[in-house]
Specification:
CATH superfamily of the largest domain in chain A: MetI-like
Strand order of the largest sheet of chain B: 1-2
Largest interface: A-B, 123 and 136 residues
Number of domains of chain B: 2
Order of helices and strands of chain B: EEHEEHHHHHEEHHHHHHH
CATH class of the largest domain in chain B: Mainly Alpha
Shape of chain B: globular
Number of helices of chain A: 15
Largest sheet of chain B: 2 strands, antiparallel
CATH topology of the largest domain in chain A: MetI-like fold
Number of helices of chain B: 13
Distance between the termini of chain B: 16 Å
Order of helices and strands of chain A: HHHHHHHHHHHHHHH
CATH superfamily of the largest domain in chain B: MetI-like
Radius of gyration of chain B: 26 Å
Largest sheet of chain A: none
Strand content of chain B: 5-15%
Oligomer: heterodimer
């Protein structure tokens, strides 16, 4: 059996080479044409909900009622966007989202990198225990932990300039804390997997040179971890931006909510004009789409980093 | 998937955590032991303690408290009103007044899981397989299928409610409504039922919207896994006369085991965690999941007993913890073997 496999491998090296050459010169085979046709059709169908939403957002609702979503346009305008802006306060909500997103993102990555460094670069009695704790923690459904947190947060007072409600509940601080605590699980998992694969000699050499632990972390390991940090930052941007659950539960006042969770009041406000809802949806997805298209590589790397190093 | 770099071995570094030896760590030279200096020791402890305290306070202590609260009756206003009621919440939710909601929700979670496995997972795997053939334009196809993954399920809910499921103008109505109106999201009729529980039609409509987002996610995971499989392996299989299906079944699929494990865990967790899309559609009757029962008992109209919500939370915990432990032990045992 084993000699059989060996024979196969040697055989293929040549064919693999021959094949790269072949695909460049031979015309498309019918099977390939069919495959392209299948993927292109499905791909276009896949984009239909999003594209039709975008298309409808530029047309008056009356036109959709009369002619349907899939019809030639009589007029294009930004009227729906203006209406959505008027009613939805999206500029305020973008700002509120940034106030939550930026600190959450930085703190999550920073704290996760600390524990990932300590638990993956050094082996000590409980290092695997801590990694298990963080990994398992990030897999629990958020709904499990929400009741005790909700009750605790409304009993923690905050000065008025930090919270409209006078306690942690209802403030951006609560949401930041929740994101940091919850998302640090996934980031620790990914970063520790990544850091573990860096050569161990890095720490040894640094120690011989008398570098402090902090120097080893900040000047040696962190720069080498940049690809994983970039991937995680992109992915976490989307996850935190897309958060609906925490904000809906912990920010009872709709006006205080970040943009994604503010959608829950959207139905009521715009329900008469679904094309305005489309425009509002576009407002919500623009930032995350920009990040996705600009950093697609990192985005996909982030997902597969978490998955692959298993 | 590279395993070339050595993992840290026991004799490179060893910090004993017993109180008198705390802070001892080997200096990296084989067998040589040196101590962290005072400052390094403080830094090390802080590096472990600060993130851990936050994570444990936000995730693990509340998990534990939820389980404890599930044995109480409490309106959440004053601690003095908290009564220990033993298994009363479980009695009510599993056998008593709330059992209708409970079993329908658990069943819905189950439908969701089943659907995610047989819909998006298989389709995602197929798409990954096709895209792995290095077609021209693979990246474009990949982007198309992946785009919904970056949207929040709340937005997905709105887009589908408007564009696809509008009773009159929605594309699903136009395509399948036979010229009339269809109440896709309001139709709580069961497609099939047994003993008063079943699979409601509006829940099926929501499942399709969820699949739209989930497929690309699975596709990317499998695509990454397939890319790391040696092309030579597949070439040799086809040279040996394996047809495409045999090559996939006997050569490619077995090498994807780590991805399969992850997909199973992710799908189970996603099926238990799902919340946004149904919440944003105002929880149409017969579409509630356990996650909604948990939160409804906490905030809003029915929020009179936190204990009951916690009983639901505990059920969620019990449903997922087996998979979570399976995954982490699988992941870290493998690592300990290499250490």
């Amino acid at each position: 059996m084993s000699s059989d496999t060996a024979k196969k491998t040697t055989k293929t090296v040549t064919t693999a080479e021959g094949r790269t050459f072949e695909t460049k010169t031979t015309p498309l085979k019918p099977a390939r044409v069919f495959l392209h046709l299948f993927l292109a059709t499905l791909g276009v169908l896949w984009m239909v909900p999003l594209l039709v939403s975008l298309y409808a957002s530029f047309r008056p609702f009356s036109e959709t009622i009369n002619k349907g979503f899939l019809s030639a346009p009589d007029s294009f305008s930004l009227e729906n966007y203006r209406a959505a802006l008027d009613q939805g306060d999206f500029i305020d909500k973008y700002w509120n989202t940034a106030l939550i997103l930026i600190p959450s993102l930085i703190l999550t990555l920073f704290l996760a990198s600390l524990i990932a460094f300590a638990a993956s670069r050094f082996s000590w009695r409980f290092n695997i225990f801590f990694l298990v704790l963080f990994t398992a923690g990030n897999l629990l459904p958020q709904q499990i932990i929400v009741a005790p947190l909700f009750q605790a947060f409304r009993r923690i007072p905050l000065p008025e300039f930090m919270s409209n409600s006078g306690n942690l509940n209802g403030s951006n601080w609560a949401i930041i804390l929740l994101h940091v605590g919850f998302q640090s699980g996934f980031c620790t998992f990914v970063l520790s997997n990544y850091m573990k694969l860096l050569p161990k000699e890095l720490n040894e050499a640094a120690m011989v040179d008398g570098a402090s632990l902090w120097t080893q972390y900040w000047h040696i390991i962190m720069p080498l971890t940049r690809p994983a940090l970039a991937a995680l930052a992109t992915l976490e941007f989307a996850w935190i931006y897309n958060d609906f659950f925490w904000a809906v539960i912990f920010e009872q006042r709709g006006d205080d909510r970040p943009i994604t969770s503010a959608l829950s009041n959207l139905g009521g406000e715009f329900v008469t004009d679904t094309n305005v809802v489309s425009a509002a949806s576009i407002f919500v997805i623009i930032p995350v789409m920009i990040v996705y298209f600009a950093l697609q590589k990192h985005f996909i790397a982030g997902l597969t980093l978490g998955a692959n190093k298993g | 998937m590279t395993t070339a770099s050595p993992l840290i071995t026991d004799d490179d570094a060893d910090i004993s955590s017993s109180a008198d030896e705390a802070g001892r760590v080997s200096g990296g030279k084989k067998g040589g032991r040196s101590q962290f200096t005072g400052r390094d020791r403080t830094v090390f402890i802080a590096m472990v303690a600060i993130p851990s305290i936050i994570h444990i306070a936000i995730v693990w202590i509340p998990t534990f408290l939820s389980i404890l609260l599930s044995f109480t009756k409490w309106n959440g206003i004053r601690f003095s009103s908290l009564e220990i009621t033993g298994v009363e919440n479980y009695d009510q939710t599993l056998l008593g007044a709330f059992k209708g909601d409970t079993y329908q929700a658990i069943l819905n979670n189950f439908w969701l899981l089943l659907f995610l496995f047989f819909g998006p997972t298989l389709l995602g795997m197929l798409l990954a397989y096709l895209l792995d053939k290095n077609l021209k334009g693979t990246r474009i196809y990949q982007s198309l299928f992946y785009t919904p993954v970056v949207l929040s399920l709340a937005v997905v809910g709105f887009i589908w409610q408007n564009v696809m499921y509008d009773q009159q103008y929605g594309l699903a109505t136009v395509a399948f409504g036979g010229g009339g109106t269809v109440d896709w999201l309001g139709n709580q009729e069961f497609l099939f039922s047994f003993g008063g529980y079943g699979l409601s039609k509006n829940f099926i409509a929501i499942l399709f919207a969820m699949a739209w987002r989930h497929t690309g996610y699975i596709m990317v995971l499998y695509l990454a896994g397939m890319k790391s499989v040696d092309a030579a392996l597949r070439e040799s299989a086809s040279l040996d006369g394996c047809n495409e299906w045999q090559t996939f079944r006997h050569v490619l699929f077995p090498t994807l085991k780590p991805i399969n494990v992850i997909v199973v865990v992710i799908t189970v967790i996603e099926a238990l965690r799902a919340y946004d899309i149904i919440a944003v559609l105002n929880e149409p009757r017969n579409t509630e999941l356990l996650s909604h029962l948990t939160t409804n008992a906490l905030v809003g109209e029915g929020a009179d007993n936190i204990g009951r919500g916690s009983a639901y939370a505990t059920m969620l915990f019990l449903l997922c913890i087996g998979f979570v432990l399976w995954y982490v032990t699988n992941h870290y045992r493998k690592q300990e073997n290499t250490v």
